[in-house]
Amino acid sequence: MTEINAVTTLTRDGDVAIITLNSPPVNALSANVRNGLFEGFKAAGASDAKAIVLICEGRTFIAGADISEFGAPGKPSASLFDVQEMMENSPKPVIAAIHGTALGGGLEVALCAHYRVAVPSARLGLPEVALGLLPGAGGTQRLPRVVGVETALEMMTSGRHVPAPEAFKLGLVDELAEEGKLKEAALAFANKCVAENRPLVKISENNTKLEAAKGHPEIFANFRKANARKFRGFDAPEANIKCIEAAVNSATFEEGLKAERTLFGGLMSGAQSAAQRYYFFAERQANKIPGIADDTPVRPINKVGIIGAGTMGGGIAMNFANVGIEVVIVEQQQAPLDKGLATIRSNYERSRTAKPEETAKRIGLITGSLSMEEAFKDVDLVIEAVFERMDVKKDIFAKLDAICKPGAILATNTSGLNIDEIASVTKRPQDVIGLHFFSPANVMKLLEIVRADHTADDVIQTSMKLAKKIGKIAALVGVCPGFVGNRILGQRQREAQKLVMEGAMPWDVDRVLYDFGFPMGPFAMSDLAGLDIGWVKEKSHGETIRDVLCEADRRGQKTGAGYYDYDENRVAKPSPFTEKVIHDFIVKSGANPRKISDEEILERCIFPMINEGVKILEEGKAIRASDVDVVWVNGYGWPVYRGGPMFYGDLVGGPAVVLKKMQEFEAKMGDQFKPAPLLEKLVAEGKTFADLKG
Ligand code: 3HC
Fold first, then answer.
1. CATH for 303-480?
2. Atom of ligand 1 at shortest distance to CA of 68?
């Protein structure tokens, strides 16, 4: 065995040289890895081996360029292009042996091998788009040459990780190896190449699939049109599409590469990719809890109890059944229980994400009961998902304390009640935690995990790991009204309402926030959810705009009208009726409606959110600024290409700019805009929001 460098070795098996990479955690293409590959291929090329296999140790093949190196001053090292050239031009067959994931630069390396062998569990993809980028090492030019233009468009703009069996059908993988026998299969394949004198396939030289798309610009036009909504606001999808267009329309591979390089450079130096790369690490950072080691033992969770078969309880149940965990749902009456279980069944049948037998298995894992005593004796975790009333929750937790086995985790899905108070009725507050799911709970990615005063470390650790298992993105937050997400939302909602009372129309506010990148504005959202949530007809006397709208049976999309008017296809139009209602309210209040600029709308909605984020951090209710961003990107539709409210705060100039704005608003409009003391401290110390790292 020859040690090429700290992460690369060269060994020999008969006629085959084996280059092995071992750079945990994911064999990302750091300077060390690139050097190792370059020197490894050089040494293998100079040896008398007749073929070369590239294989990785650890959990995965190369998962891409090393994202943490982007933007950092480069160490002198071999470039990715040097490595690729060495592989593609090798006079001996090069075989990439793939397990885990071959992603981004990792797949781009594999595409410079002459052949690829993969185990069925492997996944291949070019996910750069999720980082606001495009594959910048020839991937945009090679992928369509292998899989064709349409598939390349889909793969590159979605960033999808394609399972190896599908990749095999697409021609991305040449042979599927038996699981666990990758090395043997790759060696056998290499020996076959030698014995049969197989050609050294250079993807860059095969234009057949591109020819098929030449003279058909409608392929691109149609793709853009079909995905316009999905790509709205993002720069990277369009740049990825342009690269594939360049592959089709360029006279040579090199010309296409040049276009790729230019477009890659543009994205890499732009604000969107900076935000999306930041966010990649933010999500992973959120899993790290200071003071709780990653190897803290977790409590086994094999059976979950849920109280409440409503939309929330049912959605939560599906998360666990999806990963094979048994669930029992308790309701007080048979009818709502039956209704809840039927809704779960129909959700499963409609979603068709799993094969029918798998769907049946999941449905079978969820049972119902009318008795907590019966159902919860042996559960490892109970999640209470009933309506938001402290007395009801306390009553439930006192019962759970009596029923559940020692060590069971007792969780509440409250979206803002004081969990310490809830825990106080039990004799085991260390086992009580908040698990705040977002609706619809089987779809929404965010989980706010709420640590109460006495919550034990292993309960937090178990909840964090469980969140990952059920596919959620978790952020640990502290007990305060509304926790992190809703507390910040409160600021935006308040300003949106006030802006309307000052002269902006709901559709003005919505348009500004939509253009900023939110999926919809607050008024469109109210119409979708129903204006009558929490509205009581008997008590309504036209005291608010909402009262008047509901009294006129404008209760949102479901009644064909709310803040907006809706046509039969539920397309919203500004409503003269709403406009008059608002105008009357303003006049009644003695104010004069004024013209409000888009800039003011945005600043009034966004800056108080950032200020509230700072207050939250100051009170220790979130660990770090990036956790606040994780909550808002995942749970509230903050556009990921703007990183999150705290990242955005830095982007627009940092604490000094936010402070100045808040002071300006405070002087004009009072206390609600009072700057957080920590904001002033950050300015005094010349720090950024990103410095709030926990
Ligand atoms: N660069 C640097 N670090 C990376 C990385 C990368 N490409 N990919 C993962 N990591 C790190 C993570 O930050 C994490 O670090 P931590 O333990 O300190 O938090 C660790 O590796 C493990 O990652 P995950 O927690 O995400 O592990 P999973 O097993 O859940 O997922 C994965 C593994 C599917 C590989 C996932 O990490 C992933 O999607 N990685 C990014 C893949 C990617 O986007 N590749 C393209 C990069 S850009 C590129 O290649 C440009 C090129 O075209 C020139």
1. 3.40.50.720
2. 2
2-268 CATH pick, 3.90.226.10, 3.40.50.1100, 3.30.110.40, 3.40.1620.10: 3.90.226.10
Chain-centroid distance, C-alpha 330: 31
Whether ligand 1 lies within 6 angstroms of the CB of 640 is answered as no
Which of 636, 596, 590 lies closest to 613 in space, CA to CA? 636
Distance between Cα 63 and ligand 1 center (Å): 6
User: What's the pTM value of the predicted model, to 2 decimals?
Assistant: 0.95
User: pLDDT at position 300, please?
Assistant: 98
**Bridge partners (DSSP) listed for residue 163:** 123
Q: What is the per-residue pLDDT for 615?
A: 98
What is the 3-state secondary structure of 417-469? Answer: CCHHHHHCCCCCHHHEEEEEECCCCCCCCEEEEEECCCCCHHHHHHHHHHHHH
Q: Return the ligand 1 atom nearest residue 105 CA.
A: 50
Q: What residues form DSSP beta bridges with 485?
A: none
- Integer Cα distance of 487 and 677 in angstroms: 18
Choosing from 29, 37, 61, 67 the residue with most ligand 1 atoms within 8 A of its CB, the one to mutate for a pocket test is 67
Quick check: CB of 127 below 6 Å from ligand 1? yes
The minimum-distance atom of ligand 1 relative to the CA of 280 is 13
Q: Is 104 in the pocket of ligand 1 (CB under 6 A)?
A: yes
- The closest alpha carbon to 498, from 372, 605, 579, 588, belongs to 605
Q: Is 128 a catalytic residue?
A: yes
Give tens-digit pLDDT for 474-510: 999 999 999 999 999 999 999 999 999 999 999 999 9
Indicate the fold that domain 504-589 takes in CATH. Answer: N-(1-d-carboxylethyl)-l-norvaline Dehydrogenase; domain 2 (1.10.1040)
CA of 27 to the centre of ligand 1 (A): 9
Contacts (Cβ under 8 Å, ≥6 apart) of 121: 99, 164, 179
The pLDDT of residue 437 is 97
Residue of 611, 586, 594, 602 lying closest to 666 (CA atoms): 611
The best mutation among 21, 26, 260, 268 to test binding of ligand 1, ranked by most ligand atoms within 8 Å of the C-beta, falls on 26
Q: Convert the pLDDT of each residue in 371-413 to its tens digit.
A: 999 999 999 999 999 989 999 999 999 999 999 999 999 999 9
Beta bridge partners of 328: 305, 367
**Cβ(136) – ligand 1 distance below 6 Å:** yes
What are the φ/ψ torsions at residue 433 (nearest 5 degrees)? -150, 160
pLDDT at residue number 73: 74
Q: Is 108 a catalytic residue?
A: yes
- Regions of the chain short of the pLDDT cut 50: none
